[in-house]
Amino acid sequence: MEVLATGVQRDERPLLEAAFGPRHQVRCLETFLTMDTLPLAAGYEAVSTSVNAVLDAPVLEGLVRGGTKLIAQRSTGYNNIDLDHAERLGMTVARVASYSPYSVAEFAWALAMALNRRIVRAASRTRDFDFRLDGLLGRDFHGRTVGVVGTGRIGTAFTAIARGYGMRILGWDIAVNPACTELGMEYVELDRLFRESDLISLHVPLMPSTHHLVGERRLGLMKDDAILINSSRGGLIDSAALVETLRAGRLGGVGLDVYEEEAGVFFYDKSLEVMTDDTLARLLTFTHVLVTSHQAYFTVDAIDEIVSATVRNVDDYVAGRITECTLVPRNP
């Protein structure tokens, strides 16, 4: 089968081509799938998309008109896909059920450490031969409290690292994970976690019940010098409320690898354009805010697992199999 893969990063392309090579033809495009780029998918029965593709009802209808029957998304998240409409159209939709949890967990800790020890500011100074320590005072994480919001595979990997730091670990999720309790986690109510934690890291999926899980009220519960990390989904945080919290001089640092309006911005070069997103522009003005472009998953190990799972999803579609990766099954 010939597959169109869109939103393919340059470093991802050789891995994708090597994985598909033995069994399927693949055409890789850096372009993301939107209404404007829809004609590129015409004639492809299978289309593999990235998490920043816009797969709403009009795009899905356009894909079907062009002959597409399978969407194989290269991510675990799928909040960008109108699954109900895909089912009505008779499309098959699959995702990557899981990949290396360490890629995201380790990156979340990298953000936390960079903020706590002012590493970005320090590196910028030394490039200008300024070797002062003014404004670079950090804190030991050892002995302090970390709050882990979401204790699935990534949250568990994050917790294991927290244990290595010698931290008191609080956790919250809809169900207790025995692996986390064995690591010393105490499950508590979410508000208590926000009140008591010196560092909070978000590892829950985005769904209606978690949209703006961190809003004005919970931001208000946080310690003035607490650090907030989000490497999950941008919509978990009310960005406007976060800006107001920072303007009030609160929080010791914020690390964002995701942003709720990142589609059309993240993964693109916007350096020669005017930033029209006022909220993102304001976030970037704070020296204790660190924003990265949804790269937490971006390791060789994770990409290998993602592309391998994507190839299996295409194989399963051809064979008519339903697996844990199937979001909308193939019509009989």
Task: Report what the structure shows.
This protein has 332 residues and is α/β, with parallel strands linked by helices. The chain folds into two domains: 2-99 and 299-328, NAD(P)-binding Rossmann-like Domain (Rossmann fold, 3-Layer(aba) Sandwich); 101-291, Rossmann fold. It is built from twelve helices and 13 strands. The strands form two sheets. A seven-stranded parallel β-sheet has the order 8-7-6-9-10-11-12, sandwiched between helices. Strand 10 (227-230), helix 10 and strand 11 (253-256) form a beta-alpha-beta unit. Helix 1 (13-20) runs parallel beside helix 12 (300-319). The longest helix has 20 residues, at 300-319. The protein starts with a strand and ends with a strand. The mean pLDDT is 95.
